[in-house]
Amino acid sequence: MGLAILPGRLKQDIERITTLLSEQGQWGEARDQLKETDSLYPHRVWVDQLLDQYGIMAADKARQVILHEIGNKFVTILGQAGVFKHDELGREAFCRFAMACGYEQK
Description:
By secondary structure, the chain is mainly alpha-helical. Helices cover 63% and strands 0% of the residues. The two termini are 36 Å apart.
């Protein structure tokens, strides 16, 4: 399974986050200087979580962790993207839809 297609603007963000996770102390300074217009601003809580969970690491390991965690985010998003949820209400709604399309329930 390959990587999902990410917007091109995130390529630079991934590289910057990789650098920040792999250089001791730099994130604290960078975070304090972030402005709302900075592309990393929306990711600041996530970077904090990554540092809490994994700590400072080598650049190659940081990139691996980031790609793995992006994959986890996509799994969560795709799990919530269904038109009919995997619960009782979702199954009932799907059955109503299928019957409206001419299918019979057995």
